[in-house]
Amino acid sequence: xxxxxxxxxxxxxxxxxxxxxxxxxxxxxxxxxxxxxxxxxxxxxxxxxxxxxxxxxxxxxxxxxxxxxxxxxxxxxxxxxxxxxxxxxxxxxxxxxxxxxxxxxxxxxxxxxxxxxxxxxxxxxxxxxxxxxxxxxxxxxxxxxxxxxxxxxxxxxxxxxxxxxxxxxxxxxxxxxxxxxxxxxxxxxxxxxxxxxxxxxxxxxxxxxxxxxxxxxxxxxxxxxxxxxxxxxxxxxxxxxxxxxxxxxxxxxxxxxxxxxxxxxxxxxxxxxxxxxxxxxxxxxxxxxxxxxxxxxxxxxxxxxxxxxxxxxxxxxxxxxxxxxxxxxxxxxxxxxxxxxxxxxxxxxxxxxxxxxxxxxxxxxxxxxxxxxxxxxxxxxxxxxxxxxxxxxxxxxxxxxxxxxxxxxxxxxxxxxxxxxxxxxxxxx
Length: 429
Prior knowledge:
4-stranded antiparallel β-sheet; 2 domains; 19 strands; Porin; alpha+beta
């Protein structure tokens, strides 16, 4: 490094002047052209050496940031270049940094796509405070064919055929705040607001197989609020990925799906309810939940690998009515089944602003249980679920503090939404 610093423009100019003074006066234009060519060659060599100096300077600063366990505004910069070399650096329009400050900025811009991916998959510990606005649309459409009868001679069906269809559209606005308490710890608060519309269709209305009854219900309100924390166990170093431990709790602040008022659409002559729907859609699970998970991120330029896994535990809670029959009221307890979630994916940083990600995520839930007052726990048949999705995402840095995140999720199993479309705008300080 010191040898490179001594080859400054002053030294190069002195060599050129000495060589020029020792030569006789040019007798024709050929000697002048040779001197001009020699000068241009010296300039090109000098520019190449400056670029190498800047690259080494950026590598030293990146290594210092990695050793200190943090990157960004709190990073201690490397020692500046020698005054002679720094004062004679060509302007930034030549394609390289013109000062140590610009070199540091270029390094941070090169890491921007990586930081945006980490912000979505785990946590970005170099940011002091982040406010995130998110909007998610989900579409759910499920059909169920119900056969009431029997087959005669394995060919002719005798009985009624009813097709039940449930179509649901939900729009969720989520306001999230993330506070970087320390270089290895962040606290997160998520407050969702839901608006949901559901259409119920049932075949065989009035006893006629061709008739279809339809009813639409809506619901909106605050969802279940979550409070969580991210702790960085290991920073990325060598082959080891950055590993983050996540723990949190979700409060039942939304409208529970139990004890809702029902709307009876159709009854039989014997007063048997054939078709009934809830008058208002729920906005939450109705129970307290706790989750514990781990996520990992590994950069392999230009790819960014990430994975996560965790478990969600639901606590039992009592309600004034857990009976699905609109004509009866039976208090009791509800215990949702535990859920295991996992996922993995890869992101590609196209440049300092844009990255594209593709991932797979799955959530497997066991059966829920109910217990009427004074009774025993009973498993609810059909309450288990396996919701798997294929996710495609794009992040684009709008400016130094704001990023636009888009995500398209495609359901792979019947329990998952048909598709989800999400937009997030995190503002980072």
